[in-house]
């Protein structure tokens, strides 16, 4: 949720657009119109898709669950197909734009996929080395690192959100 004075914006796409309009000098969307359209498309795909990965691989920044990830890759075809699509998408964008981020420089698309990178890492999901390197670059960014550090500082445990653990 974004709160700016009396304005409350709760949807991630709306937050992204608001920030891009409020801080145009940050160039959060790519400059090129075709790249901007593609960036919005991949964000919309993240916003509404990848239900298998998001549903079966809950967000957990502190855990290391590679055995769960291996089982899910075998037993849940949607996890494997979502991961394949993400690798295909990221590989194509990194190749097309020469990195280091999806559209060259850091932007909204990279922020959108930062939680996916943490899931890939937590569950030890198999990705090629260049995808692992991209995830590491994103997670090393100051804003993303601060978000991860803040998440690690939380100590709330809710069984329904973390079905692979029994408590702390």
Descriptive keywords:
2 strands; globular; 4% strand; Glutathione S-transferase Yfyf (Class Pi), Chain A, domain 2; 168 residues; mainly alpha; two-stranded antiparallel sheet; 61% helix; 8 helices
Description of the structure:
The chain has 168 residues and is mainly alpha-helical. It has a single domain, classed as Glutathione S-transferase Yfyf (Class Pi), Chain A, domain 2 (Up-down Bundle). It is built from eight helices and two strands. It has helices at 12-22, 33-48, 51-56, 66-75, 77-97, 108-122, 129-140, 142-153, and strands at 2-4, 7-9. Strands 1-2 form a two-stranded antiparallel sheet. The longest helix is centred in the middle third of the chain and has 21 residues, at 77-97. The protein is globular, with a radius of gyration of 16 Å. The two termini are 28 Å apart.
SSE topology:
Blueprint: E1 2-4, E2 7-9, H1 12-22, H2 33-48, H3 51-56, H4 66-75, H5 77-97, H6 108-122, H7 129-140, H8 142-153
Antiparallel strand pairs: 1-2
CATH architect. name? Up-down Bundle
- The overall pLDDT average reads 93
Number of strands: 2
Which word captures the global form? globular
CATH topology: Glutathione S-transferase Yfyf (Class Pi), Chain A, domain 2
Distance between the termini: 28 Å
User: What series of H and E elements makes up the topology?
Assistant: EEHHHHHHHH
Rg (CA only): 16 Å
Secondary-structure-derived class: mainly alpha
Strand-residue fraction?
A: under 5%
CATH class: Mainly Alpha
Major sheet description: 2 strands, antiparallel
User: In which order are the strands of the major sheet placed?
Assistant: 1-2
Task: Assign a percent range to the helix content.
Answer: 55-70%
- Ranges with pLDDT <50 over ≥5 residues? none
